[in-house]
Task: structure prediction
Amino acid sequence: MNVLPTGKPGKVFMSAYEELMAAPDPRADIRESLRALGENLAEWRAVGESPDGTVTVTVTGNGALVDITITDRALRGSHPEEVGPAIVAAVRAARHASTRYAREQQRRALHPDTPPQAPPAVAPPAPPPVLRRRPAVDEEGDLFQGFRSGR
Result:
């Protein structure tokens, strides 16, 4: 406390630096919110399923792969080339749900006063089409398909 020359206690004057150091750090609350968010996302799980229902995938809120379940029907009945795209589709669906959840939680942590937003009306991306081999077409027994002789 500063004492004025009259001997009466006066107002304490601080430099701008001292005022800045004495003020509470607004970033501390944000840091704590983001730390709690990181713990929440690590524990939260999202489940995605392939369009045909043969593959189920579980990921964390951070998008880390936790579990893949492939039904016996997929392994016995499907062509091996169809199992891979089913796994990719299930992972995409799970990560899409995880990303939506993480974005909403980040928005809540950084802007707690704003009202919740409705999730966007966007479906997860469609799985790539399954390519199947077409049988060879044999025109009139011609071995050179598409080539015609000058008859």
Observations:
- Residues 44-112 form a domain with the Ybab; Chain: A; fold (CATH 3.30.1310.10).
- The helical segments are 16-22, 26-43, 72-77, 80-110.
